[in-house]
Amino acid sequence: MLKIGVLASGRGSNFQAIIDEIEAGKIPAKIEILIVDNPNAYAIERAKKHGIPYLFINPKDFQSKEAFYEKIRDELLSKDVELVILAGFMRIVKKPLLDAFPNRIMNIHPALLPSFPGLHGQKQAVDYGVRISGCTVHFVDEGVDSGPIIIQAAVPVHPDDTEDSLSERILKLEHKIFPEAIRLFAEGRLKVEGRKVKILNYKLPDKYFTNPEIGQ
Can you quote a single GO CC term (predicted)? Predict the structure, then answer.
């Protein structure tokens, strides 16, 4: 059974989606620890409800970002974590953690990468006037939302969309494809070759592509 560590900064809705899929028996995994950098993160309440150990690590307690990530790394390794999940973790991951978990840190971004990386991907999409947006699960590297792409899902962008309305539509698919990517990893079906992630014996379900009904 895959041992997972989760990093979060806020409400943790993707964290909850992953918990639900694990508890439903759809992902052969166990969440060993939740680590937060915000003592008021609602993700903590989700962890408490489901009996998941959690830990607040204050970045202000460390003299450097590297030292902060060394502490996170050590906590994850102490739990024998095999896969690290960024569930709304609002920081750029640094080398100590990346080196400890190469191609074993996953993030989800609310845009179709490589378009609109960084903060407010939904607003960037609306402002740019694209017709289709979506979300991307990717492995994390030293760049900003630049690691190898695992799964993407698409949604339409309506003429009257705002950042909030598009975010809501995208979030529904985030809750589907993030657990799906974790399941594939747990089953040993992801193979990274350079920039590409090969998914062994798999066809992405049609429900992860553009669906005009979503959010209407």
Answer: cytosol
* Pair 126, 212 in one domain: yes
Q: Is 85 marked within a binding site?
A: no
Domain boundary among 101, 134, 156: 101
Task: Consult the annotation and say whether 84 binds a ligand.
Answer: no
pTM of the prediction? 0.90
Domain that holds residue 93: 1-101
Q: What is the pLDDT along the chain (216 residues), one digit of tens a residue?
A: 999 999 999 999 999 999 999 999 999 999 999 999 999 999 999 999 999 999 999 999 999 999 999 999 999 999 999 999 999 998 999 999 999 999 999 999 999 999 998 888 899 999 999 999 999 999 999 888 889 999 999 999 999 999 999 999 999 999 999 999 999 999 999 999 989 999 988 766 665 554 444 333
Q: Considering its fold, how many domains does the chain have in total?
A: 2
- Catalytic residues, by residue number, are 109
Q: In the chain, at which residue ranges do the beta strands (DSSP E only) sit?
A: 2-8, 29-36, 54-56, 83-86, 105-109, 132-139, 149-156, 190-193, 196-199
- Say whether 13 counts as a known binding-site residue: yes
Residues 114 and 181 in one domain: yes
